Amino acid sequence: MALSMKNLKMLVIGLLIFCVISTVQGRPKSVSVTLDAKWGSTPLLLEASEYLAKENIEYFWRYISDVSLLKPEEMESVKDLPYYSMILTYAEKSLSKLQMSLLKLSMSLRIYSPAIENFNQMALHEPPPEKKNCDVFVSLNGLHVCSPKKIEKSLEEAKKRKKSAIYKFDHVYPGSDESDVPVVAVLYGELGKPKFRDFHVELRNLAMSHEVTYLLRHFVKNPSEQKTRLSGYGVELAIKSQEYKAKDDTKIEGDGTKEEDEVIEGEDEIQGFIFSKLKDLYPEKQDDLKQFRKHLRESSTELTALKVWQLQDLSLQAAQTVLLSEGPEALKKLQDISQNFPSVARTLVKVPVKNEMKKEIEKNQQYFENYHGISPGDAALYVNGLPIDIDVYDMFTFLDVMRSEAKLMQGLFSLGFKGNDLSQLMKLDLSGETENFALDIRHTAIQYINDLEKDKKYSNWPSSVQDLLRPTFPGMLRHVARNIFHLVFIVDPLDKESRELVKMAEAFIVHSAPIRVAVVFVTNDDMKTTGYDDAGVALSRAYDILSQEENPGKALSFVTDVYEKVKSGPIAPEQVVEIFQKKYKDHDFEMIFGSDDEYDTSRKAALDYVKRAGLKDFPQVLLNGVPLKDKYLTENTFEEGVVSEIMAQTPDIQKAVYNGNLHDGNNIHEWLMQKSNVLPRLNSRVLSPPVKTLDLTVNIDGGSFDDLDTFGLLNSDDMTAVMAENMKYMQRRDNIVLRAVTMWVVCDVETAEGRQLLYNAIKQLKHSHDLRVGVVFNTEVEDGKDYMISKAIYLALKTLDTSEAKNFITKLVKEENIKDLVEAKKTLRDFEVSGMDIDNFLSQLDKLSTNFLRVHRLFVRSVLGWRTEARGLVTNGKVIGAFDDVEEFTEEDIALQEKFVFEKGAKKIKERVMKMGILDERGSDMVMKVSALLSSKTSTTERKEISYHGDQHSVLKILGDPNEPAFQIEAIVDPVSSEAQKLAPILLVLKRAVNVDIKIFMNSRDKLSEMPLTTYYRYVLSPDVEFEPNAMFKSGQKAVFTGLPHKSVLTLGMKCPESWMVESVKALYDLDNILLEEVDSVVHAEFDLEYLLLEGHGSDGSSGQPPRGLQFTLGSNSTPMVDTIVMANLGYFQLKATPGLWYLRLREGRSKEIYDITSHEHTDTPADSDDVVISMNSFKSKIIRVKVEKKEDKKNEDLLKEPEDEEKGLWDSISSTLTGDKGGTKDVDQTLNIFSLASGLMYERLMRIMMMSVLKHTKSKVKFWFLKNYLSPSFKDFIPKMAENYGFEYELVQYKWPRWLNQQKEKQRIMWGYKILFLDVLFPLDVKKFIFVDADQIVRADLQELHDLDLNGAPYGYTPFCSDRKEMDGFRFWKSGYWASHLAGRKYHISALYVVDLKKFRKIAAGDRLRGQYQGLSQDPNSLSNLDQDLPNNMIHQVSIKSLPQEWLWCATWCSDESKAKAKTIDLCNNPLTKEPKLKAALRIAPEWKEYDYEIKVLWDKIYGTNTRSQLEYEAPKIDTKEIGAKLGYHDEL
């Protein structure tokens, strides 16, 4: 029976294949898309180096040195595959297996191509000297040298020049960036090319001898002609509604695009045939099966509507279908269903849904809603517990997270952690459980200015601590007349930031904030300095006397008065004395400001307190002793910081009141200072982030410690590992064998300062069960010295018991004993401790060499980068120091450091390690290494665990290799959602690229009433670089759609990362209206990444408000500038640029006249530079913050006030001014500005006709403004020729929808948004007025008349809908319901034509108001059905509309035939009653339409040599065509 069944199967297959071969004719129809960067393809050899630099700069330089040894001619002769293999071979010398996988994925994505191009552009701005064929050159402080032999000779001349800038993205040779090195040597060259090695070796030697700071910037002298092919983006084909026909039927002329057949993997089952099984059964028929598969796809593509009852369970049925498969096959199934849903939906209808799966999904959804705020159908994504923003993530940010996580995972794995242990350590919260450390603020230096319990102004407030328990609004402070919150300002009165904070202190008192305030002035510590010598001393003394003889409030007012008088300038002591003399004439000024120290009480107390407390780097502000974070110590953020800290401290105080631990009888100040988190000293070095954190995860043989030469060849991580392997420790004698805190004391014990630091650490051992101390000897060995102290300490640590070593070394480092040793009053024998064999010890000491000192010193110099004798600590890998020469680090500081490290992670790691049963010395090492690794992670995002009911029936689980570190990827997703479309291919690629454990929770919606997805989707991504069979690189990745419906109209949309601005550059067919039944084979489109987006937020430092209307420019010395305008919404602005170095400046004109840039964040500005420098070197989003302030003499100026003479501005667009005026002075008011937009060939055809109608009737000079975002390549190519022929100007403007503004998904609604939401920022400030004209309008009047119409103070004017075609009354929705109530008798206006007074529009912030209202309304998907006109009509009460005369817009749908005669414009608006196509309506309504259309077709045919006139929908009009195109040189008819 089995045999007969098999034969039957073969017979069926044979017949079917015969049918396929007989019937399948021609090639399958498909859509394909590619996306290239504008710049040439960058060498992968260089891109790999950038990945290594991101991992570790030493990896980068090792790679550079190794590859430079290769012969350039051999590298150029090999094929691409061995070339790529060579790259991987050299990279894996430094990278782990996991990191290598991410490197391959990075190179496939071309992630570091912008970084290479950035360096290349920098090189082009420093052209090579001497010879044009100089492929490699070096810049020595700007002095260019083209020969390695001339470098050393040129150094003396270079030293006379200003040092070249070093950027944070630069690759600096390790150890060569010391500040005292006079020359910055920048090598511009391409690794692997001739001469590169000669330059590199010469510069490396000079860097090692500290003669130059050596930087390498890539310079590809001869870039590839082939563009960089991109991936990491999505392409969508949306099924377009054909309710109103919007497709141009003009057939495409020209050669079709040749594309190879593509096979879509992942579509395993088609019409019941499972092709993976068929391939296994009939391997010899692979080609036939391929043809059969194509046939089935082609025959099953057409879409039919589903019944409502069939829609209800589609999401559950999709989930069930996915879960019936296993492993990667299930992911492929998820990808196929989500990405081809319109076509596969009908097959899902037949899938039965298991009850246990449905119930588990429902119960899980309750958990998701309650614990994560995730509703049914929503999506979430986590990598190792880190939440990924599902709305805006892309592969570039995703890979960044994975690269960061890989370092932690690989480190833990190399330490021996696997599986659940590794996962649990990754998810440890190291933030600490205790309160923030606080400083004791009980000191005579702290004299409070106000007293809430005694001052009269607070007497009406409630005075019981019980009032802290009463409810209040979130963010509001409780006004209780008790001294609960104490705010202490510790400031340098001359420092600019301190001055602003002192003003804030006074403001808190003036405005009766429920806070007690004190100000401590830290001034010159030389007590001989008088108030006549130093303004700070003068202020301190004036404050002192006024506090004593008047009151602290008046004293503070005097200080702020001085600040007000001098403004932001420097303060001279004479100014302070003069102001004091004018206000207080009766005082003895010599006593106050002279050499008498009677009024130095506060000054002395302040200096004493600061020294005792360990404070430095002022200003500092303490709230109940807790230091505020630095980010809050600015004028704009200070109030937020204070309120946040009060809110953080309030719950503990409330709890104490509630429990009775704090009551009205308590002195609250004393109660606060007696808490366990309050310390007498808070060294800011301890609480600040570490200078660096050492990598202690490397496993290496520690034997190289004994060989200085071998040790010197190690990289920094290996050196650190060898040091850790050989480190010996002192610790307290007790039963505890696992110490959570390991402290390396870095010092020179031959110096008193070094011994004191070590002694302080040893003293802490007496009080600690969790600390062990080792010594790093930072001593430069000189011949002739014996270094007895160092050798004795080292030998004690090496040979003695840990407790014996501690006791011996304690004696040895005491200064009195050192003195006795030096004076020969004692010998080492006198320091013998119990259990020590002193004779054996002394015998070994005599034989001990100083080699260990040389090794330790080399470690300090190479890894820590410190000079000899420098002191510091390395605690669990965190580097603290180097300390200043006179800086004290006391026993209290050591205790604080131990406590800080213990609470911030070591405690939890110790508990975890103990649970694993590692309790010996190895456990202490493990805690140290894990603590160093986990504390080095930069992400502060809280890791989360998904809470769920069950995972047996509704969760897809795909496990990775348990013997390797695996990423834990968890997703909650609806299988028929746009999130699934993107997520499935990404997870498939990650599964192939790296080791991952994947868990996907199905979050299906039930009771669907409409199709959940109406789009096809492809995500372009590959796990590795791909090659052709001939070992050459493939041409690149692309999106390919096959099996699409032939009779449905599709519109193509690019789904790119937020920072990408792409444009179509080649498309033969209409991408807005793809109809495959009219296509021979392939619809191919090519896009370019035109620009990378730079976003920013601006603020006025004086007011804290966005500087609305401010203009920034972005440019370089050789590249034209682009400009932008700042919105009031979040102070947002955006600019666009290509990779390179750019300068942000205020635009010439009023912006620059009124404002100065005072500060900026997240830029690439080098140290000591006044410029605002931005490097566009990444595909990821770049967001900066810029603060500006008005100039002193412009404080009252209004930026948007019309100046008498304003220069013409620049704009971030492609400008084509064809009248010969290339930017000179001109009266812009003489130009009529017309704005319009279109998408799709038909609307572009209509828009050209609209333009013709404007030109035929308008006498003024016309400038058209077009939204570039959706224009076809053909329109962009034709428009400059049309402009030249007809003598108009045009400009293509471009704006990226801001990420913070609620996004629209449908292209039509996006375009509606562009019509209304960005009018204030789309146009430069010198455009005062413009008229929007819909693409499908025909103008019959001079639009100058509309331009000149008085809008009566309104910012814009719209035409109301006609109301005289009565048969349309049923469609006039504004006549009833919400709209009738909202409009309250006003008219509802149409958005097809409107005029905007931009000056008024900006002045009343209309754009910001519209965006604000949109943001609120658009959260409801059912609101703003007609976005472009619903929004202004909805805002009619806030932003008034001038109703234009009815004749300015006539529409056959709404207006009567009788009124047509007066029409000044005719709009081809849709008719919901007749659904009449646009072109048919145009021919019927406007006779002149075909004349305009025909004239444009004549011009088109003459320019491109086509014959579009043969496809007319009408009889050709009789017009003279000879002169059409004559200005372009076309005189003859075709």
TrEMBL record:
Cofactors named for this entry? Ca(2+)
Q: Does the keyword Glycoprotein apply?
A: yes
- The name this protein carries in UniProt is HUGT
Catalytic activity, EC? 2.4.1.-
- What are the alphabetically sorted keywords of the record? Endoplasmic reticulum, Glycoprotein, Glycosyltransferase, Signal, Transferase
List, alphabetically, the GO terms of the cellular component aspect. Answer: endoplasmic reticulum lumen
Question: Which residue numbers delimit the UDP-glucose:glycoprotein glucosyltransferase thioredoxin-like domain?
Answer: 720-935
All copies of domain UGGT thioredoxin-like, residue ranges: 41-227, 299-429, 440-686
Q: What EC class is this?
A: transferase
**Its biological function?**
Recognizes glycoproteins with minor folding defects. Reglucosylates single N-glycans near the misfolded part of the protein, thus providing quality control for protein folding in the endoplasmic reticulum. Reglucosylated proteins are recognized by calreticulin for recycling to the endoplasmic reticulum and refolding or degradation.
What the record says about family reads: Belongs to the glycosyltransferase 8 family.
Give start and end of each Glucosyltransferase 24 catalytic domain. Answer: 1232-1498
- UniProt-annotated location(s): Endoplasmic reticulum lumen
InterPro entries recorded? Glyco_transf_24 (IPR040497), Nucleotide-diphossugar_trans (IPR029044), UDP-g_GGtrans (IPR009448), UGGT_TRXL_1 (IPR040693), UGGT_TRXL_2 (IPR040694), UGGT_TRXL_3 (IPR040692), UGGT_TRXL_4 (IPR040525)
**GO BP of this protein:** ERAD pathway; protein N-linked glycosylation via asparagine
Q: In which pathway does it act?
A: Protein modification; protein glycosylation
GO molecular function terms listed in the Swiss-Prot or TrEMBL record:
UDP-glucose:glycoprotein glucosyltransferase activity; unfolded protein binding
Q: Does the keyword RNA-binding apply?
A: no
Catalysed reaction(s) here are: N(4)-(alpha-D-Man-(1->2)-alpha-D-Man-(1->2)-alpha-D-Man-(1->3)-[alpha-D-Man-(1->2)-alpha-D-Man-(1->3)-[alpha-D-Man-(1->2)-alpha-D-Man-(1->6)]-alpha-D-Man-(1->6)]-beta-D-Man-(1->4)-beta-D-GlcNAc-(1->4)-beta-D-GlcNAc)-L-asparaginyl-[protein] (N-glucan mannose isomer 9A1,2,3B1,2,3) + UDP-alpha-D-glucose = N(4)-(alpha-D-Glc-(1->3)-alpha-D-Man-(1->2)-alpha-D-Man-(1->2)-alpha-D-Man-(1->3)-[alpha-D-Man-(1->2)-alpha-D-Man-(1->3)-[alpha-D-Man-(1->2)-alpha-D-Man-(1->6)]-alpha-D-Man-(1->6)]-beta-D-Man-(1->4)-beta-D-GlcNAc-(1->4)-beta-D-GlcNAc)-L-asparaginyl-[protein] + UDP + H(+)
Signal peptide region: 1-26
